[in-house]
Amino acid sequence: MHKKPKILIVEDDAFYREFLVRALGQDYAIDQAESGLKALEQIRRQPFDAVLCDLRLPGMSGKDLIGRIREWSDEEIILIVITGFERDWPPVEATDAQVFFYLKKGEFGPRDLKKVLENGLLLRKSRLERKQFAEELRALNLELEKKVAERTRALMESEAKYRNLFEQSMVGVYLEQESQIRLVNQKFCSLLGYESGDVIGKPIARFIGPAPQEGHTIAAGKPDSSSPGLEEVLLKTRSGDRRFALHCAGSIHSQGLHAVQGCLLDITAWKLIEQQLLQHQKMESLGTLVSGFAHEFNNILTAIVPQTELLRMQASQVPSIRRPAEILYTMTEKACGLTRQLLGMSRKATLDRKPVEVNTRIHETLSFLSTSLGSRIQVKLDLDPRAGQIEADPNQVDQILMNLVLNSRDAMPEGGTIRISTGFCTSTTVEGRSGEPRERSFVEIVLEDTGHGIAQENVSRIFDPFFTTKEPGKGTGLGLSVVYSMVKGHGGEIFVKSQPGKGSSFRILFPRLGSQAPTRNKAITRAGKILVADPDPAMRDLFQDVLSQMHYEVIPAGSGQEALDIYTRQKDDIDWVILDSASQSATPLSALHRMVNINPQVKLIVTHPGAPASGERMLDLPQTAEANIRHLHVPQGFENLSRSLERVLEQGCC
Fold it and tell me: Looking at domain 135-266, which of 3.40.1010.20, 3.40.50.720, 3.40.50.10330, 3.30.450.20 is its CATH number?
């Protein structure tokens, strides 16, 4: 049975401890302590993988507790600060004290807490594995030193046995003497792509160098080094491929002379996983930032768009203001488009999902781009008719294809070939929402070009926002980052391969569409009273106008607390409650949670700047309560909002 990670929660507030325990669920073995001294006693008795610590504790502050833990406990233990008093220990100082993450009470939900803890445990696991590999390398180096010293005295008798161990080693081994490589094994040659005759007689520094993040030079080739060193290095392979290795080297005596014996362990695959994790975290952070901005901008536009529509209609009767009204309407539409792009990058935009035939979409996109590609670009198609359909937003699929095709065009200024192929595959490389790999069917789109390619040091950065390899003024650096966000927003994956001078290849996997068709519920009769709570007066007025035309009586509220007070007094008369998601939190203290406590059957509509992902639980509520909650993306325009509200109220879906 898989052993659960051990978590210690240090919090003097019993209510908040219970909240954290419930938030983490059954996936962890959780212990609790209400003070720093009791926490130290528990840590001395048994090891923990992670500690969630409040700063204000009786007897000993959380800051002092963390200091004591770092003095004598496991240096790899994950420390997470959860506090409502940021001034007690600013986040920057906490990070300097090797605190993994800093959370503010009331500003995170169970999913956020679980995500932080999962990332911390993943980092801990990576560190422990690397430490274990380092110890194994040091042990192997000592063993090799011992064997070389023993076999030197009787080389003829033991050469066959030593050669077998040396050649079949899982790490690359070399012996350097007087700045020349004297001996290498087959693994060493295979790592670099050379034959043994190509490396014998040359210095080791010609084949390995410091890793890009390191500023120091390697210790290899220094016979006066008295103890083995361990470092991460970049291998200078024959093919030019970037390969990383852990390098362990130390001084020995060979045939009466000083020599350096070293080992190389290939860690290229580990580095790739690490880069993917960093990329994921970077895009998640950007999405959070952009989502917050787009939410506020979206609220402003939601109030402006109906007014510009009304002004435009009235201006048709007044020639003097007709053109200014048209310009104002056009600029408003452009602002709405910018908001949709930002929401798309943050993966919070509404996706107008429908069945999309991938092959047909590719033909239509290429037909639209034929003029832009010109006569020097040749497009070859290899579309599998069995590829099938995906459930996606057609406009976003078009944008993904256009961005990739135009990116390939720009990489071939002298002309070239773009090859697009489709197919279907079954893969377990894409994880489900539970985090466990599961086999799923995907539609595969591969786009290859014969352009100038991408330097290896830039391949891992091409999906970063504002990063571009184009000349100044010829690229914004947003195209591929938007593609990345859109693919991820559809539950897909995107991979890239490229070599300078040999072109680039982009591979996209979209979940294949199943055979089930969505069902629709019967409409219910509209009638009753609706409580609308939003801190923005313009939004309250807009909901008032829309709902009044739908013959609902509207009760406005400027905050969650005001809405809670009204609902407490009139809960028997109120049929629906509309709450702005930005003013709510995932904690039991929010107005939404208190309304559910008052009436578990309360009917709630929670508004968002973007629609939540399918099947995602937005709030930490009992399933019986969530069954009565609807999530509504607030679109621009009076008519659009009216249709969206009507769909939610009549059909019980968003």
Answer: 3.30.450.20
